[in-house]
């Protein structure tokens, strides 16, 4: 018999459907579901909202390298904001919806990078229109990728953000559909050069960070009142509880633990953080490489298309 080795989902434009293909070898009992991580009961602080995905992706270890890694000379500093592909900083308020903001930001940036235009997609639709209804209770990119692939994105103008649990708005037109979301790492922090290669090749990347809680009050206070004038540095290895969008890096910038930091977009408005040495818009921060579990669950959008109302997707369950 055949053993399932991998799955591939492809949209056939002529037929307007997704078809699942598998590459196979020999098996004895048929396909086996990926193992699940235990679901922790975590009370997320206000304004955060990242919950690690349930699927056990520990086989990804320290992150998979792209072909050609090691042959590209990485610049000492890179910032996608200078290329005009990073959309404006938003504010999630006290709602635990960072996962929706950063997933949406990743989609917006990838479309801009591909020359598809600049869009302001609805985070409200992303948090409310998943069958799991995560809303302000926290979630992750897998939930949002499910919505964006099965239905598509909705414009902010049609479904404006509300920082509370509200009903899914079903009367909006869908704009762009997600075709591919690639995972770089799971519950591990890849070497900075791995993330830098993906960032340089694929554009801004979604990731996660531990932004503090009652177990680390000093770090919680520091992160919450950060003014953008220095590099954040925290040596704890707590489970991430906040989503982020990596937009660049600086290998030369000093911090308490040495040198080198990520340039990151947050979702707490422009009055928090700073500009990180570009433009006038606040809401960004520097975080030292390896700090605060930053880099776990890193991923990126790698393909999309305009929504076609004649397309249909065959799927077995609502979770994708």
Round the mean pLDDT to the nearest integer and report it.
86
State the helical fraction.
Answer: 10-25%
Computed CA radius of gyration, to the nearest angstrom: 19 Å
Note the quaternary state here.
single chain
SSE succession: EEEHHHEHEHEEEEE
Kindly identify the CATH topology.
Cathepsin B, Chain A
Give the CA-based shape: globular
In total, how many beta strands?
A: 10
Instruction: Give the DSSP E fraction (strand runs of 2 or more residues).
Output: 15-25%
Low-confidence stretches: 1-28
Tell me the number of structural domains.
1
Any idea what the CATH architecture is?
A: Alpha-Beta Complex
Largest sheet, in brief, is: 6 strands, mixed
Structural class: alpha+beta
**Helix segment tally:** 5
CATH 4th-level superfamily: Cysteine proteinases
Please tell me about this protein's structure.
- This protein has helices at residues 98-113, 123-128, 141-150, 192-202, 217-224, and strands spanning 3-12, 17-25, 77-79, 176-183, 205-209, 231-232, 242-255, 258-265, 284-288, 299-306.
- The protein has 320 residues and is an alpha+beta fold.
- Strands 3, 5, 6, 7, 8 and 9 form a six-stranded mixed sheet that branches. It has a two-stranded antiparallel ribbon with strand order 1-2.
- It is globular, with a radius of gyration of 19 Å.
- Residues 1-28 have low confidence and may be disordered.
How does the SSE layout of this entry go?
Blueprint: E1 3-12, E2 17-25, E3 77-79, H1 98-113, H2 123-128, H3 141-150, E4 176-183, H4 192-202, E5 205-209, H5 217-224, E6 231-232, E7 242-255, E8 258-265, E9 284-288, E10 299-306
Parallel strand pairs: 6-9
Antiparallel strand pairs: 1-2, 3-7, 4-10, 5-7, 7-8, 8-9
């Amino acid at each position: 018999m055949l053993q399932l080795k991998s799955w591939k989902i492809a949209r056939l434009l002529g037929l307007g459907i997704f078809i699942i293909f598998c590459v196979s070898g020999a098996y004895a009992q048929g396909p086996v579901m990926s193992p699940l991580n235990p679901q922790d009961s975590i009370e997320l602080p206000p304004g955060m909202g990242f919950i690690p995905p349930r699927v056990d992706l520990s086989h990804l270890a320290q992150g998979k390298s792209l072909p050609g890694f090691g042959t590209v000379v990485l610049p000492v500093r890179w910032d996608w904001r200078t290329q005009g592909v990073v959309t404006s900083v938003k504010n999630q308020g006290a709602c635990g919806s960072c996962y929706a903001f950063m997933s949406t930001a990743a989609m917006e940036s990838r479309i801009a990078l591909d020359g598809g235009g600049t869009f302001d997609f609805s985070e409200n639709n992303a948090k409310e229109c998943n069958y799991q209804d995560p809303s302000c209770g926290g979630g992750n990119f897998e939930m949002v990728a499910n919505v964006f692939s099965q239905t598509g994105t909705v414009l902010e103008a049609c479904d404006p953000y509300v920082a509370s649990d509200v009903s899914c708005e079903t009367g909006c037109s869908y704009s762009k559909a997600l075709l591919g979301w690639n995972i770089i790492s799971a519950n591990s922090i890849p070497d900075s050069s791995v993330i830098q290669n993906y960032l340089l090749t694929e554009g801004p990347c979604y990731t996660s960070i531990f932004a503090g809680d009652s177990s680390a009050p000093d770090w919680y206070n520091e992160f919450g009142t950060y003014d953008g004038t220095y590099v954040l540095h925290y040596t704890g290895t707590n489970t991430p509880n906040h989503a982020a969008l990596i937009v660049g890096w600086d290998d030369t910038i000093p911090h308490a633990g040495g040198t080198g930091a990520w340039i990151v977009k947050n979702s707490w408005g422009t009055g928090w953080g700073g500009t990180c040495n570009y433009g006038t818009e606040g809401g960004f921060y520097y975080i030292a490489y390896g700090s605060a579990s930053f880099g776990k669950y890193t991923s990126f959008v790698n393909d999309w298309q305009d929504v076609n109302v004649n397309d249909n997707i065959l799927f077995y369950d609502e979770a994708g």
